[in-house]
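Appendix B. One record, verbatim.
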Amino acid sequence: MMELVAFDLPGGGTAIVQAQVPDEERGAARIAREDGLIVRSGRRFDEAIAVVRPVAETLLAQLQALARAPDELRVEFGIVLDFKAGAVVASSSAQANFTISLMWRAEP
C-alpha cells in the first residue's frame, strides 16, 4: 500500500515521499504530523536512490559502445520508491515518484 515515508537526508532534514510499504512493515515506526501519520524509513534518502547512478552509467556505457554512436543521447526512466527495496526502475512513468532525464552530447 502507498504511504508517506520519511527518509533522512545526509546533510540533515527529511525527505517525505509517497512510497510502497508492504503489509508486514505496517508496524514500522511512525511519526505524527498534523495531517496524519508518516512511516519513518530506516534508510537515508541517498541510500534509497543509490541504484540510479549504476543504472545510468550502465545505460550510457552500452549505448556509447554502439557501432555507430549517436551525436546526442537522451535516456529517460522512472523511479518508484519502495520502503524496503529503495529505488526501483518503474514499469511506467505513471507509477514513478521521479522521472529521470539524462542527456549526453558527443564532444566536437
